[in-house]
Specification:
Structural class: alpha+beta
Strand order of the largest sheet: 1-2-3-6-7-8-9-4-5
Number of helices: 7
Helix content: 25-40%
Distance between the termini: 98 Å
Largest sheet: 9 strands, antiparallel
Radius of gyration: 31 Å
Number of strands: 9
Order of helices and strands: HEEEEEEEEEHHHHHH
Length: about 280
């Protein structure tokens, strides 16, 4: 009898372990990606359905913090700072909680985005921004809870929430104009010290036109003369040596050595001393 019972349990476990039935989620997950100007947005959330129920004021009570969807917390991520409700939010990931009311919602960007559901009590130190947004009734039923970004422009858009016959929109701005203007100013002003340094270093390493490398490194050093760096001067010394200008190479190496000693960088001190000894033979 014991053997028969044990055998039955083995078969039952085997059947359960090998079961591969997959069923649909009651509130399917969604991941939305949208570029606004130069800023990439992603939000991940679950989409519960109306299913004949009264949503706001019943399934989702008025005046209480809602996870803004179902299952795990709704998350929004952006790679540049944005401004919402007059407050700048740093680039990163936030949970979106809402407090629905009949005529307006409070939309909350919360720094603790991991986990499921909304906390019983919000930690104000984790509230990055609060925005009040009006509720608008729409003339048709949105069966599945929906989030989107619309009203796109180069400098902003509207984060939208739609469910049942309710629409709520939160305008935001992105720093596109500042980024583009800075890029234009930089390009129009011509290459910077870092650009000349990088080009000269590349030409040296790849054995390309050393005359060009010499001209570029001189430009980089000249543009950095208020605060030269020992590694920049070291590169200048190597380029001069490669170009056959040992006198110029020694001068640059001595300048690099002095700054490296002040900075306490033993590696550059050693390299410069060895190079100076070699180039002054």
């Amino acid at each position: 009898m014991k053997k028969l019972l044990l055998l039955s349990l083995v078969f039952a476990f085997s059947f359960t372990a090998n079961a591969q039935i997959e069923t649909p989620q009651p509130s399917p997950t969604s991941k939305v990606e949208q570029k606004v100007g130069l800023t990439d947005f992603t939000f991940e959330y679950s989409r519960p359905g109306v299913k004949g129920r009264t949503i706001f004021g019943d399934l989702v009570p008025y005046g209480k913090v809602w996870r803004t969807g179902a299952n795990l917390r709704t998350k929004i991520t952006f790679n540049n700072p944005i401004t919402v409700g007059g407050k700048e939010l740093k680039a990163g990931t936030y949970a979106i909680f809402t407090i629905p009311q009949a005529t307006s919602w409070e939309v909350i960007f919360y720094t603790e985005y991991a986990g499921g559901g909304a906390p019983a009590t919000l930690d104000e130190s984790k509230v990055a921004a609060r925005v009040s947004a009006d509720v608008h009734e729409i003339p048709f039923n949105v069966e599945s809870f929906t989030m989107d970004i619309n009203n796109l422009s180069n400098n902003g858009g509207t984060l939208e929430f739609l469910w049942a016959k309710t629409y709520v929109g939160v305008p935001f701005t992105v720093p596109t104009d500042a980024a583009v203007s800075k890029s234009i100013d930089k390009i129009m002003a011509g290459p910077g010290a870092g650009d000349y340094y990088a080009a000269a270093a590349y030409y040296l390493e790849e054995g390309k036109d050393i005359t060009k490398a010499k001209a570029w490194i001189d430009k980089a050093i000249d543009m950095s003369k208020e605060d030269p760096k020992f590694w920049q001067l070291r590169r200048q010394a190597l380029i001069y040596a490669k170009a056959g200008d040992k006198k110029g190479a020694v001068k640059a190496a001595k300048a690099s050595l002095e700054l490296a000693e002040k900075a306490g960088n033993a590696d550059y001190v050693k390299m410069n001393k060895e190079s100076i000894a070699e180039w002054t033979k």
